[in-house]
Amino acid sequence: MSPALLEVTDLRHSYQTRQGEHTVLDGLTFSVERGEFVSIVGPSGCGKTTLLRSLSGLLRPSGGTVALGGTVIDGVPQGLAMVFQDYRGSLFPWRRVGENVEFPLLGSVPKSERRRRTEESLEAVGLAAAADRYPWQLSGGMQQRVAIARALAMRPELLLMDEPFASVDAQTRSDLEDLLLRVREQFDMTILFVTHDVDESVYLSTRVLSLSKAPTVQTADVTVPLAFPRDQITTREEGAFVTTRSEVARLIRQAGPGGLAA
Amino acid sequence: MSTAVAPGIRVQLTRFAIGWIGAVVLLGCWQLATARSDSAFFPTPLEIVADIHERWFSAGIGGGVLTDAFFQDVTPSLQRLALGLLVAWAVGISLGVVLGRVRTVAEYLEPLLHFMRALPGPVLLPLALVLVGTGTSMRVSLIAFGAVWPILFNTYSAVRQVPECFIDNAKVARVSRPALLFRVILPAASTGIFAGLRVSTSLGIILLIASELVAATDGIGFGLTQSQRSFQFVAMWSFIVALSLLGYVANLILSGVETRILRWHRLMAAIQD
Ligand SMILES: Nc1ncnc2c1ncn2[C@@H]1O[C@H](COP(=O)(O)OP(=O)(O)OP(=O)(O)O)[C@@H](O)[C@H]1O
Ligand SMILES: [Mg+2]
């Protein structure tokens, strides 16, 4: 059997603070297979960003290992892209939209291929016409789509997303959710998606993992029995959606007083 | 966008026109006032212009316009200033980046650098004379030493303030270290760096003149003191005008480059106002 795309083993992290050691991740073990869409739900401050930073090699965890495609990572691995929580700090304001999307390819991909991938990625998020504008001339939702396009241009095997839709309005948010499901098909990616919204996690994923408050452990691993393509209205009405959502919510509440309400 | 830019241009043109009208009116008053007085210390602007032309630009088209005196009075100063500023900028920007990115280096060097910055450049003139002698290298090092601080500290603080998320994004894209520096850190810090360039340029001009006041045989500063000592007041004024032109042109060049490089920043600031 080939190794899982992502294997996390006993991942631990503590930050050194003035008050001493602050344990955030307290031993997480899970794996993600190729083709899965795994959501990670957890309350604010439980260490979701810390987890993704360890998975992407930006942060060296205090303990445990992360393996991508069977190789334990040490630094940022190849084949991985990340969409950050704050879109305002993600795009470079001195580069035009197209130049931002092209950025990760500079120096490693020949020019004609760069142009092709940039166009294709912007096309996929519906922003082909905005290539020559600056990011700060776009709305928040559009900027987040540019950030997604930039990730797509890297052709990642694994896409990490850190609460990417947390700061846009509800309508934009459902549009972005459907856009994400579409590009996942088109680009054949495995996605690990962090959110604090149980509804969103069930709607998008094939599997939901939930985390407790810090010091954080895993509290649930629920498979979502819903077919693709999904639909904002009919999928959310399905019995399987409702029961899965309740199951996840219940597991989260059992795991810790306060739970997601925090 | 285009609708937002059009009135901007009109406003700029108006400002430009007002600026020039102001200058012309001022010159007119100066002309009138000095023409009425018969003080030798205050020649009329027309006399000064005539002297500048005669002194530096009267070699004729065949002779290349510039006179020998130009190469004696102005060229050496330009060379010293350019060289001194180049050294100051190169050292200031590179050291500023290192300080801004490597916390431990900053902790070790910062107190020392602040102490050194507190020394006013001209005070070092006697020391520079002893250490580096009276040649061009003395003047260049004095300019470099004095002008390095604003660019160094501006770069340092601008680089330190580059948002960590920009760096993270670049790291996830697996960019090389040079690419991280030239494509992310320097552009993100560019507004601060340019502010430093401007201040260091005006400081450089002051130090240039200071350095040419002692043990010099040519240059604007030398010409200025020479003409003053020999009571050639029209010539003295010509040198003063040459100096202010030097500052003006230097600023013009810097603004031109800045306008090009920081176009995005100006547009962004205009939107967010
Ligand atoms: N660099 C750091 N130094 C010290 N403590 C930190 C650091 N980064 C995060 N923390 C702490 O670790 C905990 C987890 O932070 P993290 O950002 O990973 O949480 P999160 O789940 O992403 O929260 P949110 O939902 O608000 O984004 C928080 O208590 C935070 O204060
Ligand atoms: Mg977070």
UniProtKB/TrEMBL annotation, chain A:
<keyword id="KW-0067">ATP-binding</keyword>
<dbReference type="InterPro" id="IPR050166">
    <property type="entry name" value="ABC_transporter_ATP-bind"/>
</dbReference>
<keyword id="KW-0547">Nucleotide-binding</keyword>
<dbReference type="InterPro" id="IPR003593">
    <property type="entry name" value="AAA+_ATPase"/>
</dbReference>
<dbReference type="GO" id="GO:0005524">
    <property type="term" value="F:ATP binding"/>
</dbReference>
<dbReference type="InterPro" id="IPR027417">
    <property type="entry name" value="P-loop_NTPase"/>
</dbReference>
<dbReference type="GO" id="GO:0016887">
    <property type="term" value="F:ATP hydrolysis activity"/>
</dbReference>
<protein>
    <submittedName>
        <fullName>ABC transporter ATP-binding protein</fullName>
    </submittedName>
</protein>
<dbReference type="Pfam" id="PF00005">
    <property type="entry name" value="ABC_tran"/>
</dbReference>
<dbReference type="InterPro" id="IPR017871">
    <property type="entry name" value="ABC_transporter-like_CS"/>
</dbReference>
<feature type="domain" description="ABC transporter">
    <location>
        <begin position="6"/>
        <end position="238"/>
    </location>
</feature>
<dbReference type="InterPro" id="IPR003439">
    <property type="entry name" value="ABC_transporter-like_ATP-bd"/>
</dbReference>
<keyword id="KW-0813">Transport</keyword>
Automatic annotation (TrEMBL), chain B:
<feature type="transmembrane region" description="Helical">
    <location>
        <begin position="81"/>
        <end position="100"/>
    </location>
</feature>
<feature type="domain" description="ABC transmembrane type-1">
    <location>
        <begin position="74"/>
        <end position="258"/>
    </location>
</feature>
<keyword id="KW-1003">Cell membrane</keyword>
<feature type="transmembrane region" description="Helical">
    <location>
        <begin position="234"/>
        <end position="254"/>
    </location>
</feature>
<keyword id="KW-1133">Transmembrane helix</keyword>
<protein>
    <submittedName>
        <fullName>ABC transporter permease</fullName>
    </submittedName>
</protein>
<dbReference type="InterPro" id="IPR035906">
    <property type="entry name" value="MetI-like_sf"/>
</dbReference>
<dbReference type="InterPro" id="IPR000515">
    <property type="entry name" value="MetI-like"/>
</dbReference>
<comment type="similarity">
    <text>Belongs to the binding-protein-dependent transport system permease family.</text>
</comment>
<dbReference type="GO" id="GO:0055085">
    <property type="term" value="P:transmembrane transport"/>
</dbReference>
<feature type="transmembrane region" description="Helical">
    <location>
        <begin position="12"/>
        <end position="33"/>
    </location>
</feature>
<dbReference type="GO" id="GO:0005886">
    <property type="term" value="C:plasma membrane"/>
</dbReference>
<dbReference type="Pfam" id="PF00528">
    <property type="entry name" value="BPD_transp_1"/>
</dbReference>
<feature type="transmembrane region" description="Helical">
    <location>
        <begin position="138"/>
        <end position="159"/>
    </location>
</feature>
<feature type="transmembrane region" description="Helical">
    <location>
        <begin position="180"/>
        <end position="197"/>
    </location>
</feature>
<keyword id="KW-0812">Transmembrane</keyword>
<keyword id="KW-0813">Transport</keyword>
<keyword id="KW-0472">Membrane</keyword>
<feature type="transmembrane region" description="Helical">
    <location>
        <begin position="112"/>
        <end position="132"/>
    </location>
</feature>
